[in-house]
Recover the amino acids of this structure.
């Protein structure tokens, strides 16, 4: 497991400002006898995307550490293959198996609410991270601020273009909370700068190939663009590859900590900005569940600060590429000490 470096400073600041992050959960949902070592369930919406594979790896690594501490005995992992109804059934199976805690990356903001309420009513700790549900009938939610994600990306683009220009907006899948919330966060900034004209907008999977195809089609219809407001890293890589293949000049592009995007950014010398949805949100969810099961108070909402990648620290991320898959995400370091600071939020 990697260790805290530059990211720790952001966490420390967040801990000091944590009074605004959410109400204290006091281990909501947890009733009955829960004795270590605990059994955890990881209800994954889909396992194919590399981001999810890396996330599962961080959960497994954290569980291994908790096993060594005598706090966890077993991790049950399911894969709903992108189907919310399947995810509901798998969560129900975890309830029936009487796991102590369930970690959920939701395939729907609403469809899981009933089964989550059932888990809560039966005394199971429920930790929802990344893609969130719209119910608070659970132990805790763990996430970055996706609205802030979109807002900061849009502000960077406006500044790069001096408040005037033609842009293409690239979103992730419609109906997924992280995608929708990023776009909602960008909207007030774009509305406040009417000279930033949106030529076209698209929703694609968080994968390079469909993003490149979508961008290729948009470029044919838009011979002049000044920026790409991409709200996902693989989308950014696809956009750059499409522009490059057509011999188009590269324009300021926002994105995420997707390895190929960062490498293209460095190689092509483009003007870029990125943040991240750290894969270790899953590990933090596992840690939070175990803390709650031990009777400790945890925040109802664990807010993780957004790490920013720009020209000042891009080289730091590029230097760590060997530790990450070619089609993966270069996420910031983490450890249990950092997790403990995040859980001091009130």
């Amino acid at each position: 497991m990697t260790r805290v470096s530059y990211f720790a400073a952001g966490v420390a600041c967040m801990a000091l400002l944590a009074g605004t992050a959410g109400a204290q959960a006091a281990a909501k949902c947890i009733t009955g006898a829960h004795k270590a070592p605990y059994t955890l369930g990881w209800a994954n919406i889909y396992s194919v995307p590399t981001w999810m594979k890396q996330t599962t790896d961080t959960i497994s690594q954290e569980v291994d550490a908790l096993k060594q501490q005598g706090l966890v005995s077993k991790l049950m992992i399911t894969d709903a293959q992108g189907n919310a109804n399947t995810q509901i059934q798998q969560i129900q199976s975890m309830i029936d198996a009487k796991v102590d805690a369930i970690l959920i990356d939701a395939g729907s903001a609403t469809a899981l609410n009933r089964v989550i309420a059932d888990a809560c009513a039966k005394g199971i700790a429920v930790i929802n991270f990344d893609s969130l549900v719209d119910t608070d009938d659970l132990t805790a939610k763990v996430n970055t601020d996706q609205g802030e994600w979109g807002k900061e990306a849009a502000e960077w683009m406006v500044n790069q273009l001096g408040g005037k220009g033609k842009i293409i907006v690239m979103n992730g899948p419609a109906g997924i909370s992280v995608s929708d919330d990023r776009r909602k966060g960008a909207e007030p900034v774009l509305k406040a700068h009417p000279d930033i004209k949106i030529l076209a907008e698209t929703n694609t999977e968080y994968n390079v190939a469909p993003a490149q195809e979508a961008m290729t089609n948009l470029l044919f219809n838009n011979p002049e663009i000044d920026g790409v407001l991409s709200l996902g890293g693989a989308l950014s890589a696809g956009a750059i590859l499409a522009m490059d293949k057509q011999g188009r000049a590269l324009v300021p592009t926002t994105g995420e900590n997707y390895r190929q995007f960062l490498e293209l950014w460095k190689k092509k010398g483009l003007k870029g900005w990125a943040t991240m949805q750290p894969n270790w949100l899953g590990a933090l969810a596992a840690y939070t569940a175990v803390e709650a099961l031990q009777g400790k108070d945890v925040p109802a909402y664990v807010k993780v600060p957004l790490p920013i990648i720009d020209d000042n620290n891009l080289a730091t991320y590029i230097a760590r590429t060997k530790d990450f898959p070619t089609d993966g995400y270069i996420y910031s370091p983490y450890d249990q000490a950092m997790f403990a600071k995040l859980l001091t939020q009130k």
